[in-house]
Automatic annotation (TrEMBL):
Entries under Gene3D superfamilies matching the protein: P-loop containing nucleotide triphosphate hydrolases, Tetratricopeptide repeat domain
Organism: Pedobacter miscanthi
Top-rank taxon, per record: Bacteria
Source species taxonomy: Bacteria, Pseudomonadati, Bacteroidota, Sphingobacteriia, Sphingobacteriales
InterPro entries in the record: P-loop_NTPase (IPR027417), TPR-like_helical_dom_sf (IPR011990)
Designated name of the protein: NACHT domain-containing protein
Length: 863
């Protein structure tokens, strides 16, 4: 045995002694402790890692290390171990077994290297068993070589490692008699660097001058062959890029004699495979010997398809140490993770940052940013690489299937920085392919993923506007990318992240003011919430506890979506912001949320915080919102209200507004909008409909064009409140005109409205049709509203719509259905542990008696 074989044997016995079949880096500390307990010699964890190939070995192992490990497995020292092993092999071993022992030693090292290079723990990687029958078919049939070809990051190396373990190395391996020789790029580079040729190395290790010589030997001596000889070569793409190595590889393929027991498997990137194809197709024997496999795609030249959802969830579950289901991962992220490479990026990012959940769509963008930061922005030749990537993204056009550019078009840039270009190719950020559908096959270049291309498009925009986002910045996005397009969505999201990173919050108001679609505005609002929450957790962020200002309040007050995300964002920011005025405003918004949630506990807690700042509230707001919120709190907990003082304050405010001169729409403040909302729902709850009408007219006097605002939910809120007031005052024609107007503006895809507004509109329409005796249509609107409230958890609206439905059904012959809806309402209140506050009853006056009975019954139940 040579020294390498003896080390392999020692590793094997150390594993057996330690009770381990496989080993990972975490076991090395345990083995270090075992050795010390057994021998009283301390061999460090780092040395054990080097011994098992988990760390670079820059020198030979010391005699102390070898003696200690030999003593651990029961020998006096390293010399005794060596002599014993030499004695065991003095008896003539078969040629096949000798080859197998040598190959096993090399393969084991290659396998450890593959596991160490896995971006996520190898045990967490999906084994991709779909490929096993295909590989088994190749082994059993008369093919000589196959390729596992894929783009960078598709997981071909890990797939090969799993196949070696499954078919040849595991305890229940199918083909234990076969010889497996796995060679990776490191092994080949080491051979070349040591001044040897692959032929010299093969002769030294296996005692045959070449693979052809080995094949000839076993053809002449078939009785000496005990299985198949499997050679797996992976990671040699960089070597094949050099013409001399490429020629050596082609010559090697041509030199192999036809046989049925030597099997060659090459792990190649598709751009390497493109260059190999002409050589293979030019030879009838090689074409016959090549097994493409069931999963080979002629267009992509790959036979490694993306991960499926189950494989992604398997790996995520192992990374997170808990079961991850499809519902736990945002759909865009699940799609991104189908390229295994992004799972590796996630594993590294997670190790550095624990704040992002898999359900958070921001994670897609953080992964891209993190990857490009490491591979481009902080890498060598970063300036040249960024320049090239910008130029490539600038030249790319939409092809039939992919975004790509002819290499010829960017050749001048490549020739300026050839090394940087090669590094980008090797890193897998850009990919070269052959376009075969044209008359003359042409080389094309594209990005690893469209998401990276989109990022560099966005970088181009920031350059164009000198990193100053403003109205023209967002107008450019609006005019340069078509609506209802995923690329525009991504560009907007990058813009939101960019603005919040730089704490330029005011710039984001342009998304709502410009004619982006309502879907885009709602998506942008949600993403604004995700990013602001995340930025607050980052150290040294520009958007921080000290810097959050009134622009943030303006956006949150204008986009009152009442979603779970909205509630969480308001709460998170309010708990962390240090500016007391901003915190007070956020607490007022929180109270608004709690009123709609009918959440008396949260409402009471936030009111305690507001009460401490009662004087400052009066200075910040046109009317002290605490007084209005207290009115609703008493309503929820069934306490009597002293409303005379409150009425006087509202009348005074109404007079103050009326006396104000006309103002532009953009002059209305967030504190005004928050105050006016609370006042209007207070007046409505008090059934002061005439006062409610008077108050809206006062607002119109101050802001004559307020109904024409399309970038804030305050305008439709005001319109709907006026419509509800007209119903109560029996001005049905005016109410109908409001309904038609709101329907028209909401149907415009550029008007910003939310599910909260849609639910409010359903209540308004149900009440209108009820009041005008159109009970069939009232029922349709109530049911449509209930579908929205059920999907969005608008508890107060759910109660209001159920009450409206009961009111409607009472006017029909459906007495049994009335009972069913009453049961549904009471069950809803019980499940959510809610009261039924007076302000939830928006039905007609004749329904008052029924409402009191229902409320009394509910109160009786609580007792």
């Amino acid at each position: 045995m040579n020294a390498n074989d003896l080390l392999i044997e020692l590793r094997k016995f150390v594993l057996i002694k330690s009770g381990l079949r496989n080993i990972d880096p975490a076991h090395c500390k345990i083995i270090s402790e075992y050795v010390f307990q057994e021998t009283k010699n301390y061999v460090s964890e780092t040395t054990i890692k080097r011994f098992f190939g988990f760390a670079n070995t820059l020198h030979k192992f010391s005699l102390f290390t070898l003696n200690s490990l030999s003593q651990y497995i029961g020998y006096n020292d390293w010399d005794s171990f060596c002599k014993d092993k030499e004695n065991q092999t003095t008896s003539v071993q078969s040629v096949w077994q000798d080859l197998k022992l040598k190959a096993h030693a090399i393969t084991e090292i290659s396998l450890i290297a593959k596991k160490n290079n896995s971006g996520v723990p190898f045990s967490a990687t999906a084994n991709r068993s779909f490929f096993y029958p295909d590989f088994d078919y190749f082994l059993k049939n008369n093919y000589q070589f196959t390729t596992v070809s894929a783009q960078p990051g598709q997981g071909k190396s890990i797939l090969l490692a799993h196949m070696v373990e499954y078919f040849f190395f595991s305890e229940n391996a199918l083909y234990k008699n076969d010889i497996v020789l796995m060679i990776n790029s490191t092994s080949i580079s080491t051979i070349i660097q040591n001044g040897s040729t692959l032929k010299d190395w093969f002769l030294k290790e296996f005692k045959f001058g070449s693979l052809t010589e080995l094949i000839s030997f076993f053809k002449k001596n078939p009785e000496k062959r005990e299985g198949r000889f499997i050679i797996i070569v992976d990671g040699i793409d960089e070597l094949l890029a050099r013409s001399n190595h490429f020629k050596t590889f082609i010559d090697f393929l041509y030199s192999i004699e036809e046989n049925n027991f030597v099997k060659l498997i090459f792990g190649l990137r598709t751009n390497s495979w493109i260059n190999l194809q002409p050589a293979i197709y030019g030879s009838a024997s090689l074409t016959k010997a090549w097994y493409t496999g069931l999963f080979y795609d002629e267009d992509t030249l790959s036979n490694v398809p993306p991960l499926n959802a189950d494989e992604v969830l398997y790996t995520l579950s192992h990374i997170e140490n808990k079961i991850i289901n499809r519902a736990d991962v945002s759909p865009p992220l699940l799609a991104q993770f189908k390229t295994p490479f992004w799972l590796q990026v996630y594993f590294k990012l997670k190790d550095e940052n624990h704040h992002l959940e898999l359900s958070n769509p921001l994670l897609c963008y953080e992964l891209i940013s993190y990857f490009l930061e490491k591979r481009v922005f902080l890498a060598k030749k970063s300036t040249e690489k960024i320049f090239l990537l910008k130029k490539i993204s600038d030249c790319i056009s939409e092809g039939n299937k992919k975004l790509r550019v002819s290499k010829e078009k960017i050749l001048s840039y490549i020739n300026c920085y050839p090394d940087a270009y090669e590094e980008l190719l090797h890193a897998g950020i850009i990919i070269e392919e052959k376009r075969l559908s044209t008359t003359i096959p042409t080389e094309i270049v594209r990005f690893l993923s469209d998401d990276i291309y989109t990022y560099f498009l966005f970088i181009q925009i920031t350059d164009k506007f000198e990193y100053k986002p403003g109205k023209s910045f967002f107008e450019y996005i609006l005019n340069s990318f078509p609506a209802q397009n995923a690329r525009r969505d991504h560009i907007l999201n990058w813009s939101i992240r960019f603005c919040i990173n730089r704490n330029e919050i005011a710039a984001l108001k342009n998304i709502f003011k410009l004619p982006f679609t309502n879907r885009e505005k709602n998506t942008a609002f949600d993403f604004f919430c995700y990013v602001s929450k995340f930025e607050l957790t980052k150290p040294n962020s520009n958007f921080n506890k000290l810097s959050i200002g009134v622009d943030f309040i303006d956006i949150m007050a204008s986009g009152r979506t009442m979603s779970t995300l909205y509630k969480e964002t308001i709460k998170t920011i309010s708990e962390n912001v240090l500016n007391e005025d901003i915190q007070i405003m956020l607490h007022v918004i929180e109270c608004n949320v709690n009123l709609i949630d009918v959440d008396k506990v949260s409402l009471a807690n936030t009111m305690q915080l507001l009460k401490r700042n009662y004087k400052r509230l009066g200075e910040l707001f046109p009317i002290n919102p605490y007084d209005l919120i207290l009115y609703f709190y008493n309503n929820i907990v069934n306490k009597p209200n002293e409303s005379k003082t409150l009425e006087d304050k509202i009348i005074k405010l109404c007079q103050d507004i009326d006396r104000s001169g006309p103002k532009r729409n953009d002059e209305i403040t967030a504190t005004e909008m928050l105050s006016y909302r609370l006042v209007l729902i207070t007046l409505f709850s008090q059934k002061s409909y005439a006062e409610c009408h008077r108050f809206i007219m006062a607002i119109l006097s101050k802001y004559p064009n307020i109904f024409y605002v399309r970038h804030s939910v305050f305008s439709p809120f005001l319109l709907l409140h006026l419509g509800q007031t007209y119903i109560k005052l029996n001005y049905f024609k005016k109410a109908q005109r409001i309904m038609q107007f709101v329907d028209k503006i909401i149907s415009s895809e550029y008007t910003y409205h939310t599910n909260f507004i849609l639910a409010s509109f359903s209540i308004f329409k149900a009440n209108f049709y009820n009041a005008t005796n159109n009970y069939e249509q009232a029922l349709i609107e109530a049911n449509a509203g209930l579908q929205i409230t059920g999907n969005n958890d608008f508890k107060m609206f759910e109660i209001s719509l159920l009450l409206s439905k009961i009111d409607t059904l009472k006017h029909t012959e459906e007495s049994e259905e009335v009972s069913n809806v009453i049961k549904e309402l009471l069950n809803f209140l019980t499940v959510h542990k809610l009261s039924m506050p007076d302000y939830s009853n928006l039905s007609g006056s004749e329904f008052e008696h029924t409402f009191k009975i229902l409320k009394s019954y509910r109160r009786h139940q609580n007792l």
